[in-house]
Amino acid sequence: MRMPGRVYLVGAGPGDPDLLTVKAARLLASAEVVVYDRLVSQDILELVRDGATMIAVGKEPGRHPVPQGKINRILIAQARAGYMTVRLKGGDPFIFGRGSEEAAALAAAGLRCEVVPGITAAQGAAASIGIPLTHRGMASSVRFITGHRRAGEPLAFDWSGLANAETTLVVYMGAATIGEVTTRLLAHGRAPRTPVLAISRATTSAERRLVSNLANIPCDMIAANLDGPVLFIIGEVVGLHSRAEAGPVLHAALAEIAAGDAGALHA
User: Fold this and answer.
1) Which residues are CB-contacts of 217 (< 8 A; sequence separation ≥ 6)?
2) Which residues are catalytic?
């Protein structure tokens, strides 16, 4: 009889396989079972070793063919059968990924679980175009929220805090509710001209971007028809987008000069 296996909750990152951690790539190359979400790119799935059992449990907005409770039971069953199991999740397992629910279920079943962090979508999307989520004199904090909600329920957040002009706000899964988000932020004093970046399929060859502002982003999103999960970055840092096109290194140098700190470039 095989000893119980271990489950690894592995972050697949935003999509580009080059952004996987070394540990994540190593586990994919040795896993016996891989339980994966729909947001995991095909390029990453191709890193799974030949012969591994692949179990798709992806969810879509308004459609959950494999409920969370069943996913938990699948992980428990595979571990009890003695298999080295990777639960592969887009981004990071513990940021809007329900990884903590799965870890709790495994712990309650007396099974070993290890978390392997991944680059979350906010970091990947921002870095892919050289936009910093924080920037001296412009954004002193960053906050992540989800635009997903249960049917009929409003988005309940600290809108006054989120409307702070020096806060970069990142909205996950917000395509369906960006109108409500902008309405709330504007009502709490965030400037209509505040730059907004919408990005889908970040860090992949299918990446698409839309640059707008808080007043216009709901209408612009309808016209742009971005497909796939859309992430929104709201804040003054998005205004650095045009300079970021010149490259993150050059942009950093320009920012230092603009701040009157040119001496730091030669330190």
Assistant:
1) 178, 182, 196, 198, 210, 232
2) 37, 59, 173
pLDDT tens profile 120-148: 999 999 988 889 999 999 999 999 998 87
CB 132, CB 194: distance < 8 Å: no
**Residue 146 in contact with residue 96, Cβ under 8 Å?**
yes
Tell me the pTM.
0.84
Say if residues 185 and 162 touch (Cβ distance below 8 Å).
yes
Average pLDDT of the residues in 227-231 = 86
Provide the CATH topology of domain 7-119.
Cobalt-precorrin-4 Transmethylase; domain 1 (3.40.1010)
Of residues 10 and 260, more confidence is placed in: 10
267, pLDDT greater than 80: no
Identity of the residue numbered 164: N
> Quick one: pLDDT at residue 152?
63
SS3 label, residue 150: coil
Enumerate the domain spans of the chain.
7-119, 122-258
How far apart CA 183 and CA 220 sit, in angstroms, is 15
Bridge-based pairing of strands 7-11 and 85-89 is parallel
Q: Which of 141, 144, 75 is nearest to 112 (CA)?
A: 75
Is the Cα torsion angle 32, 37, 43, 44 positive or negative in sign?
A: negative
- The verdict on domain 122-258 having CATH code 3.40.50.720 is no
Identical fold, 7-119 and 122-258: no
